[in-house]
Design goal:
By secondary structure, the protein is α+β, with helices and mostly antiparallel strands. The chain has 4 domains: 165 residues, Glutaredoxin (3-Layer(aba) Sandwich); 319 residues, Glycosyltransferase, CATH 1.50.10.10; 65 residues, no CATH class; 59 residues. 49% of the residues lie in helices and 14% in strands. The strands form 8 sheets. Strands 1-3-2-4-5 form a 5-stranded mixed beta sheet. A hairpin with a 2-residue loop joins strand 19 and strand 20. Helix 9 packs parallel to helix 11, helix 11 runs antiparallel to helix 12 and helix 17 runs antiparallel to helix 18. The protein is globular. The model has no long low-confidence stretch (mean pLDDT 94).
Length: 644
């Protein structure tokens, strides 16, 4: 018998509609019932492609004993963190407060009947004797909590009240600090402290790609010719693209690697990761002219176009699991690959398998994840890849979450415009996707956050949606010089300022569930830092100082933390450098701008805007004045250097 989740659009909630747990979606009815019946509240937050969410469903939410306890003594609420990032942000803060470390998914929250949290966990195994991150098993824990709530346990209620007061406390920065380029020295020092000199990346396992950090290091190298920044970028990008976390067969990156060398991933693929990595690999190609970086960027874009889109709209994620196990679709047996190559006439099979890291014993649970031994692909890999795809074709493809999200889609659209400076086809794809996204998510003057493909959206937009969409629209203007895109970017920026901005601070969501926006780059780039980017661009392109003023006030408000711990705020640091160094605007006629798109994208100075004029030559300008003209785009680099 289905529970209430059967009426929800979210693919994640739909996955739980047949659990024996009497789930509610997030709604007033659930909280009113908890208070009326004096029942504790259990809130479970996850997303459709999350491996450990599936494990918890199988071990706990499909377990009849667990379900009976929950149904008798709790009001149970399921939340899709991709559909409601505002709720997720709030409870991640709760987890951090209670555990002194960052959380993850699934997130398991226990609250009093009046919805004050007092316990936060992630995956909790059913039995205490099983390996469990949280120690106590779910059955024992839930029974204990139910008993204490029914007896009005004073300590739990006191703890819940204390947590509530901490959460409601508004902390302000200690002081403002002068924004200065010296912040870069601290950033480089902090990044080096986290850097893996062998395989690249900025942590021990599990390793996430940290695209924002890589992008800022690339900018620092371009500005200061910083050899250490360059080495960290190149080593990390080269190691990641060897395969494992990067899918060498279909293209696209998985969410993170569980080992140091980027070999064994959690196999889910997220739109935001792939959008941001497509951008960094494109920019690395434009800077260092390594063709393999461009190849990776194109493979990412092509994978999402071919497998993860429909009618120009991008799906949000694909699962790690298929056929009930993690990674089944992606991995290969030694014998099946050997036979495949033999059947197709290859004679140097042992040599090929060694270069692809395919062995009898395997590198993942007795099977093999394809990864290059050397930096470059083996000879004839394109043909071998085609054959390996054929083996995958007979397998069950992982579940695809066909949710459309404004923020994540906008990230990919921006990356496609960037790639379009090199290959015109990607610019055309970006324009089609941008138009489709606006048609789907901007209805009767209201912007929405998410919807299932071809359904009417219901969840209104958050700050991240306004920010990333405005950024993509500014990129569209740069690519086409169509002022309608710039006007729309200005419109969404104005709406964001009106709804979310207050004297240097930004809210992530407003209304019934208000949350503060983070300035740190966590799962992906901070929406506040993206808004600073948007406002600086509008200030330059519209020659309107009020936008630059709002950008400055945001950076000034956060300047103390930015100067002290810049490694946590790489994108904000990048915008600070842009503000201090100043932008350069290249003006020329549309034909010149379009035919020289690659040359202009390859300029050494990283903060460049383009603006169409009637001139046959190129004019190089700052915010308030123009410096020089040239007929030759190859002279622009030297002209810009002389303007400082």
């Amino acid at each position: 018998m289905s529970n209430r989740l059967k009426f929800e659009d979210s693919p994640y909630l739909q996955q739980h509609k047949d659990n024996p747990v009497d789930w509610y979606p997030w709604c007033d009815e659930a909280f009113e019932k908890a208070k009326k019946e004096n029942k504790a509240i259990f809130i479970s937050i996850g997303y459709s492609s999350c491996h450990w969410c599936h494990v918890m469903e199988e071990k706990v939410f499909e377990n009849q004993e667990c379900a009976d306890i929950l149904n008798e003594s709790f009001i149970c609420i399921k939340v899709d963190r991709e559909e409601r990032p505002d709720i997720d942000k709030h409870y991640q803060e709760v987890y951090m407060l209670l555990n002194r470390r960052s959380g993850g998914w699934p997130t398991s929250i226990f609250c009093t009947p009046d919805n004050k949290p007092f316990f936060a966990g992630t995956y909790i195994a059913p039995e205490s004797r099983e390996e469990s991150i949280e120690g106590m098993g779910f059955i024992e824990l839930s029974k204990l909590i139910a008993d204490k709530i029914s007896k009005y346990d004073e300590q739990i209620l006191k703890n819940a009240n204390e947590i509530e007061s901490f959460l409601n406390h508004k902390e302000h920065p200690k002081e403002a600090t002068v924004l200065k380029e010296d912040f870069v020295k601290n950033f480089i020092l902090q990044v080096k402290n986290n850097y893996d000199t062998l395989y690249g990346g900025f942590s021990v396992a599990p390793k996430f790609p940290h695209a924002s950090t890589l992008g800022t290091l690339l900018i620092i190298d371009k500005l200061y010719d910083d050899k250490s920044a360059k080495a960290m970028v190149l080593n990390t990008l080269q190691n990641m693209k060897k395969g494992g976390m990067y899918d060498l067969i279909d293209g696209g990156f998985c969410r993170y690697s569980v080992d140091d060398k980027w070999l064994v991933p959690h196999f889910e693929k997220m739109l935001y990761d792939n959008a941001l990595l497509c951008e960094i690999y494109t920019n690395a190609y434009l800077t260092y002219k390594d063709e393999s970086f461009l190849h990776v960027a194109k493979e990412i874009a092509d994978f999402w176009h071919n497998h993860m889109s429909e009618d120009g709209l991008f799906y949000s994620a694909s699962d790690a699991d298929s056929e009930g196990e993690e990674g089944t679709y992606f991995i290969y047996g030694y014998d099946e690959v050997y036979k495949l190559l033999s059947d197709n006439g290859y004679t140097n099979i042992d040599e090929i398998l060694e270069k692809l890291s395919i062995t009898v014993d395997g590198n993942f649970e007795g099977k093999n994840i394809v990864r290059f031994k050397e930096e470059q692909a083996p000879k004839d890999f394109e043909n071998i890849k085609f054959l390996l795809r054929g083996l995958r074709a007979g397998r069950e493809y992982p579940f695809i979450d066909k949710k459309i999200q404004t923020s994540w889609s906008s990230m990919m659209i921006k990356s496609l415009f960037n790639l379009g400076k090199i290959d015109y086809m990607y610019k055309q794809r970006a324009l089609k996707s941008l138009d489709a996204l606006l048609d789907t998510m901007f209805i009767e003057g209201k912007l929405y956050h998410t919807t299932l493909i071809h359904k009417t959206p219901k969840v209104e937009a958050f700050l991240e949606d306004y920010a990333f969409l405005a950024q993509a629209l500014i990129e569209a203007f740069g690519a086409t010089q169509d002022e309608l895109y710039l006007i729309r970017a200005q419109h969404f920026a104005n709406m964001a300022l009106e709804r979310f901005y207050d004297k240097g601070t930004w809210r992530f969501s407003v209304g019934a569930f208000e949350t503060k926006a983070e300035i740190s780059d966590n799962t992906y780039t901070s929406s506040v830092a993206i808004m600073v980017d948007v406002l600086l661009s509008l200030g330059t392109l519209l020659e309107d100082d009020k936008y630059s003023h709002f950008a400055f006030k945001t950076m000034e408000y956060n300047s103390y933390e930015l100067g002290r711990r810049p490694v946590i705020y790489p994108y904000m640091l990048r915008q600070m450098l842009r503000y201090l160094k100043g932008e350069r605007v290249i003006k020329s006629n549309l034909k010149n701008l379009e035919s020289n798109a690659l040359e202009l994208a390859s300029l050494e100075y990283p903060f460049i805007q383009k603006k169409a004029s009637d001139d046959d030559f190129f004019m190089i300008c700052g915010a308030k004045s123009c410096f020089a003209t040239t007929q030759n785009p190859n002279e622009i680099n030297d002209i810009i250097k002389k303007t400082f």
